[in-house]
Amino acid sequence: MVPYIFALVLIAIGIYSASTDGWSIESGTPQVLIFGFAMLFAIIYLHSQALKGSNLEQVILENKEKLAGNGEVQYKGATITKNTELRRYFWAMSFVLLCLKSMSAYYVAPKSPVSFGFKFSLISFIFGWWGIPYGPIWTVESLIKNFKGGEQVFVRDLLI
User: Fold this and answer.
1) d(CA 61, CA 111)
2) Domain count along the chain
Protein backbone atom coordinates (compact mmCIF):
# COMPACT_ATOMS: atom_id res chain seq x y z
CA MET A 1 0.00 0.00 0.00
CA VAL A 2 2.81 2.42 0.87
CA PRO A 3 4.43 2.24 -2.60
CA TYR A 4 1.11 3.13 -4.24
CA ILE A 5 0.66 6.14 -1.96
CA PHE A 6 4.24 7.16 -2.64
CA ALA A 7 3.76 7.17 -6.43
CA LEU A 8 0.42 8.95 -6.15
CA VAL A 9 2.00 11.66 -3.98
CA LEU A 10 4.62 12.23 -6.68
CA ILE A 11 1.89 12.55 -9.28
CA ALA A 12 -0.04 14.96 -7.04
CA ILE A 13 3.11 17.07 -6.57
CA GLY A 14 3.54 17.18 -10.35
CA ILE A 15 -0.08 18.20 -10.90
CA TYR A 16 0.10 20.87 -8.19
CA SER A 17 3.35 22.17 -9.66
CA ALA A 18 1.74 22.33 -13.10
CA SER A 19 -1.13 24.38 -11.74
CA THR A 20 1.16 26.89 -10.05
CA ASP A 21 4.33 26.97 -12.20
CA GLY A 22 3.04 25.85 -15.59
CA TRP A 23 4.35 23.01 -17.74
CA SER A 24 7.83 24.32 -18.47
CA ILE A 25 10.83 22.02 -18.41
CA GLU A 26 12.58 24.49 -16.10
CA SER A 27 9.88 24.01 -13.45
CA GLY A 28 10.54 20.27 -13.38
CA THR A 29 6.84 19.50 -13.63
CA PRO A 30 7.01 17.12 -16.61
CA GLN A 31 9.90 15.21 -15.07
CA VAL A 32 8.09 14.75 -11.75
CA LEU A 33 4.93 13.57 -13.50
CA ILE A 34 6.80 11.16 -15.75
CA PHE A 35 8.75 9.78 -12.78
CA GLY A 36 5.55 9.45 -10.71
CA PHE A 37 3.59 7.66 -13.43
CA ALA A 38 6.54 5.41 -14.32
CA MET A 39 6.92 4.49 -10.66
CA LEU A 40 3.20 3.77 -10.38
CA PHE A 41 3.34 1.44 -13.39
CA ALA A 42 6.45 -0.29 -11.97
CA ILE A 43 4.67 -0.82 -8.64
CA ILE A 44 1.61 -2.23 -10.41
CA TYR A 45 3.88 -4.57 -12.39
CA LEU A 46 5.71 -5.75 -9.25
CA HIS A 47 2.39 -6.33 -7.49
CA SER A 48 1.03 -8.38 -10.42
CA GLN A 49 4.21 -10.47 -10.49
CA ALA A 50 3.91 -11.14 -6.76
CA LEU A 51 0.33 -12.35 -7.23
CA LYS A 52 1.37 -14.68 -10.07
CA GLY A 53 4.25 -16.06 -8.05
CA SER A 54 2.14 -16.65 -4.98
CA ASN A 55 0.25 -19.25 -7.03
CA LEU A 56 3.43 -21.34 -7.26
CA GLU A 57 3.98 -21.15 -3.54
CA GLN A 58 0.37 -22.10 -2.94
CA VAL A 59 0.70 -25.15 -5.25
CA ILE A 60 3.83 -26.22 -3.40
CA LEU A 61 2.19 -25.86 0.02
CA GLU A 62 -1.00 -27.63 -1.08
CA ASN A 63 1.08 -30.57 -2.35
CA LYS A 64 3.61 -30.57 0.47
CA GLU A 65 3.20 -34.24 1.40
CA LYS A 66 3.24 -35.41 -2.20
CA LEU A 67 6.39 -33.44 -3.01
CA ALA A 68 8.14 -34.53 0.20
CA GLY A 69 7.54 -38.14 -0.79
CA ASN A 70 9.24 -37.88 -4.21
CA GLY A 71 5.97 -37.03 -5.98
CA GLU A 72 5.49 -34.67 -8.89
CA VAL A 73 3.13 -31.77 -9.46
CA GLN A 74 2.42 -29.92 -12.71
CA TYR A 75 2.52 -26.13 -12.66
CA LYS A 76 2.07 -24.12 -15.87
CA GLY A 77 3.61 -26.87 -17.98
CA ALA A 78 6.57 -27.49 -15.66
CA THR A 79 7.05 -30.59 -13.56
CA ILE A 80 7.71 -29.67 -9.94
CA THR A 81 9.57 -32.10 -7.68
CA LYS A 82 11.33 -31.53 -4.41
CA ASN A 83 14.55 -31.02 -6.40
CA THR A 84 13.13 -28.33 -8.69
CA GLU A 85 15.23 -25.18 -8.67
CA LEU A 86 13.42 -21.93 -7.94
CA ARG A 87 14.66 -18.36 -8.21
CA ARG A 88 13.60 -15.03 -6.84
CA TYR A 89 14.88 -11.56 -7.58
CA PHE A 90 15.35 -8.35 -5.66
CA TRP A 91 14.27 -4.76 -6.22
CA ALA A 92 14.70 -1.40 -4.55
CA MET A 93 12.66 1.76 -4.88
CA SER A 94 13.14 5.07 -3.08
CA PHE A 95 12.54 8.79 -3.10
CA VAL A 96 13.96 11.27 -0.60
CA LEU A 97 13.37 9.66 2.83
CA LEU A 98 11.20 6.71 1.78
CA CYS A 99 13.28 3.67 0.84
CA LEU A 100 11.77 0.28 0.01
CA LYS A 101 13.31 -3.03 -0.88
CA SER A 102 11.74 -6.38 -1.44
CA MET A 103 11.98 -9.52 -3.48
CA SER A 104 9.91 -11.12 -6.16
CA ALA A 105 7.90 -14.26 -5.73
CA TYR A 106 9.52 -17.57 -6.58
CA TYR A 107 9.82 -18.61 -10.21
CA VAL A 108 10.69 -22.00 -11.62
CA ALA A 109 14.31 -21.46 -12.60
CA PRO A 110 14.45 -19.98 -16.09
CA LYS A 111 17.04 -21.06 -18.66
CA SER A 112 18.78 -17.70 -18.28
CA PRO A 113 18.32 -16.52 -14.68
CA VAL A 114 20.24 -13.28 -15.16
CA SER A 115 18.24 -12.10 -18.17
CA PHE A 116 14.96 -13.17 -16.51
CA GLY A 117 15.80 -10.98 -13.51
CA PHE A 118 16.69 -8.03 -15.73
CA LYS A 119 13.25 -6.43 -15.32
CA PHE A 120 13.72 -6.31 -11.53
CA SER A 121 17.22 -4.89 -11.99
CA LEU A 122 15.88 -2.25 -14.36
CA ILE A 123 13.25 -1.17 -11.83
CA SER A 124 15.95 -0.92 -9.15
CA PHE A 125 18.29 0.94 -11.47
CA ILE A 126 15.69 3.55 -12.38
CA PHE A 127 13.86 3.98 -9.06
CA GLY A 128 16.28 2.76 -6.40
CA TRP A 129 18.88 5.51 -6.09
CA TRP A 130 16.77 8.45 -5.03
CA GLY A 131 16.45 7.94 -1.27
CA ILE A 132 18.66 8.75 1.67
CA PRO A 133 20.36 6.87 3.25
CA TYR A 134 19.49 3.39 1.97
CA GLY A 135 18.48 4.03 -1.64
CA PRO A 136 21.94 3.67 -3.22
CA ILE A 137 22.95 0.87 -0.85
CA TRP A 138 19.86 -1.26 -1.50
CA THR A 139 19.99 -0.55 -5.23
CA VAL A 140 23.57 -1.79 -5.53
CA GLU A 141 22.71 -4.79 -3.36
CA SER A 142 19.71 -5.65 -5.57
CA LEU A 143 21.68 -5.24 -8.79
CA ILE A 144 24.52 -7.44 -7.59
CA LYS A 145 22.17 -10.20 -6.42
CA ASN A 146 20.14 -10.09 -9.65
CA PHE A 147 23.21 -10.12 -11.89
CA LYS A 148 24.31 -13.25 -10.02
CA GLY A 149 21.02 -14.88 -11.06
CA GLY A 150 18.90 -13.98 -8.05
CA GLU A 151 18.44 -16.18 -5.03
CA GLN A 152 18.43 -19.90 -5.72
CA VAL A 153 16.34 -22.25 -3.60
CA PHE A 154 14.93 -25.70 -4.13
CA VAL A 155 11.37 -26.82 -3.50
CA ARG A 156 12.63 -29.06 -0.69
CA ASP A 157 13.83 -25.92 1.12
CA LEU A 158 10.27 -24.58 1.14
CA LEU A 159 8.82 -27.83 2.43
CA ILE A 160 10.50 -27.53 5.81
Assistant:
1) 24
2) 1
pTM flag (> 0.85): no
Which DSSP string do the residues of 138-159 spell out, in sequence order?
HHHHHHHHHHTTSEEEEHHHH-
| Beta strands at 90-96 and 85-88: parallel, antiparallel or unpaired | unpaired
Full domain range(s) for residue 117: 2-158
Instruction: Note the pLDDT of residue 21.
Output: 65
Residue 140 has pLDDT above 90, yes or no: yes
Cα separation of 28 and 145, whole Å?
Answer: 33
For residue 105, which of 156, 157, 159, 58 has the smallest C-alpha distance?
A: 58
- Would you say the C-alpha torsion 71, 74, 77, 82 has a positive or negative sign? negative
pLDDT in tens, 66-89: 998 889 999 888 899 999 999 999
